[in-house]
């Protein structure tokens, strides 16, 4: 029997007995961790309902189909509100995020010790709080309505736009900035002629992409009183009007598909 050259030997030939033992122990530990987590998650699960789930789902589908098409006349207004919430919220997020991105980028911030950490904190805080949580807080302060929805979408968008934009600013070509600086340009001129032209296509793409995301998020803000088509969905769910719920879900799906198509076409045209 010929020996296998070291370079062609299988990987397991290079492991010692202790290494293989540690590998097996690691896999065993992962299996034990999975079993423990599964038992913890299903400790209070009532399996009688799980077994009955297919029958319950079939019953729900039979009551929800066909959709109540006559209810569509009452959805045009809330649908328009949803689009407005997403659009105005995106614009608000852009207005707040652009200055924060300039302050957060290492090559544009005027103060790395104070202003940059403060801007990064605002961006992280915005990204850490879901739009539904923003909506709950704002509804409790401002009352129900689309204003709370617009502000919730705007505050949530700040973190997304600000983070991607300040990273794009930091990745700009330093040679172009140095060439403009060598002409004696001011900081404002360096920003306008050296940085903005480089990040503008990225900025457009980020903004349109965020608007597409906000269309989806604004569709459910009405569940907590922030206006839009989600309010109609919540009202229909409360009275168990399942055909209306089906129609609303189809409208939301169609809106998201159209917004995705518009977003892709705009980003392709810009970038």
Automatic annotation (TrEMBL):
CDD domains: TM_PBP2
Subcellular location: Cell membrane
Bilayer-crossing regions: 21-41, 83-106, 135-155, 218-235, 241-262
InterPro entries the UniProt entry points to: MetI-like, MetI-like_sf, PhnE/PtxC
GO molecular function, one term: ABC-type phosphonate transporter activity
Segments forming domain ABC transmembrane type-1: 79-263
Gene3D superfamilies, sorted: MetI-like
Keywords in alphabetical order: Cell membrane, Membrane, Transmembrane, Transmembrane helix, Transport
Pfam families in UniProt: BPD_transp_1
Keyword Transmembrane set for record: yes
Domain of life: Bacteria
GO CC terms: plasma membrane
Claim: Cell membrane is one of the keywords in the record: yes
PROSITE patterns: ABC_TM1
Membrane topology of the entry: Multi-pass membrane protein
Family: Belongs to the binding-protein-dependent transport system permease family.
Name the UniProt record assigns to this protein: Phosphonate ABC transporter, permease protein PhnE
Lineage, opening ranks: Bacteria, Pseudomonadati, Pseudomonadota, Alphaproteobacteria, Rhodobacterales
């Amino acid at each position: 029997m010929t020996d296998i050259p070291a370079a062609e030997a299988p990987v397991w030939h290079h492991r010692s007995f202790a290494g293989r033992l540690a590998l097996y122990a690691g896999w065993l530990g992962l299996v034990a961790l999975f079993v423990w987590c599964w038992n913890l998650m299903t400790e209070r699960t009532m399996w009688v309902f799980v077994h009955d789930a297919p029958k319950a789902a079939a019953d729900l589908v039979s009551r929800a189909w066909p959709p109540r098409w006559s209810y569509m006349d009452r959805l045009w207004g809330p649908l328009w509100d949803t689009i407005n919430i997403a659009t105005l919220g995106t614009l608000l997020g852009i207005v707040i995020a652009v200055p924060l991105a300039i302050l957060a980028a290492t090559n544009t911030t005027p103060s790395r010790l104070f202003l940059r950490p403060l801007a990064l904190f605002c961006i992280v805080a915005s990204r850490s709080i879901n739009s539904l949580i923003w909506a709950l807080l704002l509804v409790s302060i401002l009352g129900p309505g689309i204003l709370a929805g617009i502000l919730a979408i705007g505050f949530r968008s700040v973190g997304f736009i600000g983070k991607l934009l300040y990273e794009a600013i930091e990745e700009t070509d330093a040679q172009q900035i140095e060439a403009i600086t060598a002409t004696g340009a001011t900081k404002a001129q360096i920003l306008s002629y050296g940085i903005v032209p480089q990040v503008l296509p990225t900025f457009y793409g980020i903004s349109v992409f965020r608007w597409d995301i906000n269309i989806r998020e604004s569709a459910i803000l009405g569940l907590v009183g922030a206006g839009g088509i989600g309010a109609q969905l919540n009202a229909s769910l409360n009275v168990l009007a399942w055909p209306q719920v089906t129609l609303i879900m189809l409208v939301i799906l169609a809106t998201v598909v159209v917004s995705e198509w518009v977003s892709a076409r705009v980003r392709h045209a810009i970038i």
